[in-house]
Amino acid sequence: MPLFGKKTDKKATKLFFATDVHGSERTWRKFLNAGKFYQADVLVMGGDIIGKMAIPIIREGAGRYRATLQGTVQHLEGDEALKSLQDRIGLLGFYSRVMDEEEYRQLASDPKAVDALFHQLARQRLESWIQLAEQRLGGTGIKCYVTGGNDDYADVLQVLKDSAAESIIDCEGKAVQLDDDHMMISIGLSTPTPWKTPREVSEEELWTEIEKMTIQVPDLSKAIFNFHDPPVDSTLDRCPMLDWDADPPAPIFKAGQMVMHGAGSKSVRRAIETYIPMLSLHGHIHESAAVVKIGRTVAVNPGSEYGEGILRGFLANLTEGGVEGYQLTSG
């Protein structure tokens, strides 16, 4: 018997985390590829998976098309040019639909039809992403856990909940066992924002959801929190302060300087300080990429540059003793 007790040779679990891909085709593909590239055992996607808008591509006849993208009217000719534009729109995280002039005019006059089309396209992209995950991760043993975020509509997330996929797992509102030692709980809600996104709740409501989740974890010292909203005043939530009365919301300036502040959640901060998980994963605030320690908890927001097709991530080794070795990644 060893003099100082039993020594374990158990292999660490390698986790890769990314968030806020907002519909970007290239960024999602990079996320799936990260499993093999980093030799990860577990992939975690932290929310805000759907895109921001749908772009109509209007068929003008004789192989010609037009579309307005980022304020500029694009005129195209031929299938190759059409495919190039569709790829660019997908890179930006937007959706597109080719239609004739009459359909476009009908849609433009009917906001409810526009909204219905957006939801349809968002569901179709998520379905295609799930299929791609099965193709790339099937047989590898890599599990991919996905939660929604505050920007993600419930009917779109239902695609994930209804999926029978083996490699991609809906983890929101659940306590999932990542390996023999570690459980993860996931919440995609956020506290109120100036944009009034689909899944916002008060601090009190968010705290209630957190408490519902924590009681499902036998040993919180080995827990992983996957909460879309970052903890307030942690540097993981630092962003420009906005004037909520402006349309659209605009940054506030004082003495010629943009005012910065912590826009995260008090409830998430309270949860970390109260329950002391080993690791806490966050997103929501794209410009605040950082890894910090809150007590013994390693807390991270890898940030997001989805519009440029850049995957920002966080790679960590999980052991019985905690988080041993971690880094932010970009590629």
Question: How are the SSEs placed, and which strands pair?
Answer:
Elements: E1 13-18, H1 25-37, E2 42-45, E3 54-61, E4 64-69, E5 72-77, H2 79-91, E6 95-100, H3 101-108, H4 111-137, E7 143-146, H5 154-162, E8 168-170, E9 175-177, E10 183-187, H6 203-214, E11 223-227, E12 238-240, E13 242-243, E14 250-251, E15 253-254, E16 257-258, E17 260-262, H7 266-275, E18 279-281, E19 290-294, E20 297-301, E21 312-319, E22 322-330
Parallel strand pairs: 1-2, 2-7, 3-6, 7-8, 10-11, 11-18, 18-20
Antiparallel strand pairs: 1-21, 3-4, 4-5, 9-10, 12-17, 13-14, 15-16, 19-20, 21-22
Report on this model:
It is globular and about 65 Å long. The strands form 6 sheets. A 6-stranded mixed β-sheet has the order 8-7-2-1-21-22. It has a 6-stranded mixed β-sheet with strand order 9-10-11-18-20-19, covered by helices on one side. The chain has a 4-stranded mixed β-sheet with strand order 5-4-3-6. It has a single domain, classed as Metallo-dependent phosphatases (Purple Acid Phosphatase, chain A, domain 2, 4-Layer Sandwich), CATH 3.60.21. The chain has 331 residues and is of the alpha/beta class. It is 28% helix and 30% strand.
